[in-house]
């Protein structure tokens, strides 16, 4: 039989099958559950396409999975790029995640690699000649904690993203540019993920999104209806909720209390941001006075004292006076209901409206206020806690202690079952 001559692309494709290529996936954030799910799914994607995952720069390709919610995250990526240059990395370079969009102006100054925006992973399929396209993969639902964190069997959590995007444009945020408007994930897909988790023995579901309680607003349903349907299918499940806008806390107070009283809801995390109404309006989060927001907090915690309630806070937002900050600090000094505070110093991200506001607070003053609030919060911030019990705490140390992290062995698979197979 005559030999078959193989040339060009055929030769390259055959070589990639016989000699697997290597990739390093590197992230700048291990705290955002949606981002963790994304970079873990990236690792699953490359493994499905027969790439070897490495934790060094001695690879064919480096993929940066970049979070862009804060300029601090940009600095981590810049440090990574500097380290790659110092190591004389000459392979393929790809950057994906939110940061190609959130900090687009930065990459226009010069980036030698390929930018892959969220929902644009088809271009990554072309780059690596993927046999298994990214969009064909089910997302990773089990997010591995920090390597020395011990998670009890009863504390295992299944992470399910219910939607992409959001319904508002906060003046300090550019994530909506990367994620777009709210797009609820079809219920059938969510049922399939949750059914698989139940089959694997999971009893706690963490529902996540940019604004988790906005789920369904684009398709004529609500997050409350969705949770009630899941609870009817699997009465043993408990629910934790990622980010939700404070408007939903006010709108759904009675429904949340009802679910809490039936043992369904364990945790909420609310984007409170500040206690000053003037600043909330400037942040694009006005419309509901803070007094009403906090009234909902009090009602919830008095009716459901076991509910673990976390909030986000920003210090140093443009226009925040010393008196405003002192009032915020005084509020948290004696506040008895909020369990966890994730407080961030304001970041003037290029492209966010607030970056052009007058009365910008100087970075040194923002840092000083942040440290002062850290002391006031005591054990209510992960910066002051020795033991880590919350979902956020599990990965907190990695992001605080290092500039970036190689992603490796992050994938834990669920059993594959037919949709509705466990419907009760």
List the helices and strands and how they pair.
Layout: H1 8-18, E1 22-27, H2 33-48, E2 52-53, E3 61-66, H3 71-86, E4 92-97, H4 99-102, H5 104-108, E5 114-115, H6 122-128, E6 157-161, E7 163-164, H7 175-179, E8 183-184, H8 187-199, E9 204-208, H9 223-233, E10 238-245, H10 246-251, H11 253-261, E11 265-273, H12 277-282, H13 290-303, E12 308-315, H14 322-334, E13 340-345, H15 363-377, H16 393-401, E14 405-407
Parallel strand pairs: 1-2, 1-3, 3-4, 4-5, 6-9, 9-10, 10-11, 11-12, 12-13
Antiparallel strand pairs: 1-14, 7-8
Model description:
The chain is of the alpha/beta class and 424 residues long. The protein has 2 domains: 8-136, Rossmann fold; 153-387, tm_1862 like domain (pyruvate-formate lyase- activating enzyme), CATH 3.80.30.20. Helices cover 38% and strands 17% of the residues. Strands 1, 2, 3, 4, 5 and 14 form a 6-stranded mixed β-sheet that branches. Helix 11 (253-261) packs parallel to helix 13 and helix 14 (322-334) packs parallel to helix 15 (363-377). The longest helix has 16 residues, at 33-48. It starts with 7 loop residues before the first helix and ends in a 17-residue tail after the last strand. The model is unreliable at 1-6, 388-399 and 418-424 (pLDDT under 50).
């Amino acid at each position: 039989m005559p030999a078959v001559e193989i040339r060009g692309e055929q030769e390259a494709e055959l070589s990639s099958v016989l000699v697997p290529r290597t990739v390093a996936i590197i992230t700048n954030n291990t705290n955002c559950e949606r981002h963790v799910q994304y970079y873990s799914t990236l690792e699953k994607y490359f493994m499905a396409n027969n790439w070897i995952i490495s934790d060094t720069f001695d690879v064919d390709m480096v993929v940066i999975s970049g979070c862009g919610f804060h300029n601090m995250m940009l600095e981590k990526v810049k440090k990574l790029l500097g380290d790659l240059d110092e190591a004389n990395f000459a392979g393929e370079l790809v950057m994906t995640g939110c940061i190609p969009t959130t900090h687009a102006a930065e990459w226009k100054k010069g980036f030698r690699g390929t930018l892959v925006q969220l929902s644009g992973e088809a271009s990554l399929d072309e780059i690596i000649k993927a046999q298994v396209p990214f969009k064909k993969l089910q997302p990773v639902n089990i997010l591995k904690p920090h390597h020395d964190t011990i998670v009890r069997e009863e504390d295992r959590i299944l992470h399910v993203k219910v939607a992409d995007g959001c319904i508002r444009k906060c003046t300090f945020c550019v994530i909506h540019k990367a994620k777009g408007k709210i797009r609820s994930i079809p219920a059938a897909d969510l049922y399939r993920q949750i059914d698989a988790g139940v089959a694997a023995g999971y009893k706690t579901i963490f529902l996540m999104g940019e604004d988790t309680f906005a789920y369904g607003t684009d398709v004529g349903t609500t997050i409350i209806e969705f949770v009630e349907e899941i609870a009817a299918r699997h009465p043993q499940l408990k629910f934790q909720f990622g980010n939700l806008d404070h408007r939903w806390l006010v709108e759904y107070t009675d429904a949340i209390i009802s679910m809490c009283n039936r043992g369904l809801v364990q945790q909420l995390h609310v984007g409170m941001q500040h206690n000053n109404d003037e600043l909330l309006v400037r942040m694009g989060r006005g419309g509901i006075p803070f007094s009403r927001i906090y009234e909902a907090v009090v009602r919830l915690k008095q009716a459901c004292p076991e509910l673990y309630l976390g909030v986000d806070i920003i210090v140093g937002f443009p226009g925040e006076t010393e008196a405003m900050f002192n009032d915020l600090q005084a509020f948290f000094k004696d506040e008895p209901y909020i369990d966890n505070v994730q407080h961030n110093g304001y970041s003037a991200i290029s492209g966010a409206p607030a970056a052009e506001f007058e009365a910008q607070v100087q970075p040194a003053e923002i840092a000083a206020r942040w440290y002062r609030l850290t002391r006031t919060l005591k054990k209510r911030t992960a910066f002051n806690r020795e033991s880590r019990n919350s979902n956020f705490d599990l990965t907190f140390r990695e992001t605080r202690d290092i500039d970036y992290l190689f992603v490796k062995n992050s994938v834990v698979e669920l059993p594959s079952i037919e949709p509705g197979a466990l419907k009760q």
